[in-house]
Design the sequence.
């Protein structure tokens, strides 16, 4: 158990639907990161939050949105789902110090497997 | 963040040392080298990181060349459970808030 909790573990839904993936970071971690891993692609960075604020954005589609709540858990919302959105979605957390030095180790959750039929 | 280059695949016999190379010739002075691995469909797992000095922990050793242009991850006694994709990532500490950009990595297969 990495300490990063993701729910649900598996989700099957239909095209056009909307789903929400949830992530609880490790205790003490302020940063949350979302990654997507499709069968034919590697790990793609989607978005990062630090202490409730968006800090970095990757290749996240406009149909996707995320937020980090005051209790530091995060949700990734995927809407108007398409077949190509079927993937593993990983959440990671880190302390995420906003300083000019120091390493920053990410701890990943077990992922949420989304299947769009 | 500096680009890293890794061989696409490597094999290793169980019980032997696995030496995984990584080239990061454009690395800057404040960029750390991180290694993560992903065992089939599981979440990536942190292994080790370093800046200038060689590092060792309970999982592996990291050897960084003096010019910092390359590094080697060493799994001293590989087991079948070490079969995974290994990612080498160069990342500036702190200011970017630490998002990792994963490349294709090296598929390490440990054989009995």
Sequence:
């Amino acid at each position: 158990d990495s300490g990063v909790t993701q729910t649900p573990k598996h989700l099957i839904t239909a095209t056009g639907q909307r789903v929400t993936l949830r992530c609880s970071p490790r205790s003490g971690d302020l940063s949350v990161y979302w990654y997507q891993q499709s069968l034919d692609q590697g790990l793609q960075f989607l978005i990062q939050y630090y202490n409730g604020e968006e800090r970095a954005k990757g290749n996240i589609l406009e149909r996707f949105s995320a937020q980090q709540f005051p209790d530091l858990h995060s949700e990734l919302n995927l809407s108007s789902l398409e077949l190509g959105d079927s993937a593993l979605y990983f959440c990671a957390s880190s302390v995420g110090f906003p300083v000019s030095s120091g390493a920053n180790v990410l701890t990943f959750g077990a992922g949420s497997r989304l299947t769009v039929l | 963040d500096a680009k890293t280059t890794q061989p696409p695949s490597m094999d290793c016999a169980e019980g032997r040392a696995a030496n995984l190379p990584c080239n990061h010739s454009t690395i800057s002075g404040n960029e750390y080298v991180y290694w993560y691995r992903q065992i089939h469909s599981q979440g990536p797992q942190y292994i080790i990181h370093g800046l200038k000095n060689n590092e060792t922990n309970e999982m592996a050793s990291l050897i960084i060349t003096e010019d910092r242009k390359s590094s080697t991850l060493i799994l001293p006694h590989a087991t079948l459970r070490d079969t995974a994709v290994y990612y080498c990532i160069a990342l500036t500490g702190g200011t970017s808030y630490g998002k990792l950009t994963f490349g294709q990595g090296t598929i390490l297969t440990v054989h009995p």
User: Anything to note?
Assistant: The radius of gyration of chain A is 14 Å. The longest strand of chain A covers residues 43-50. Chain A has no helices and eleven strands.
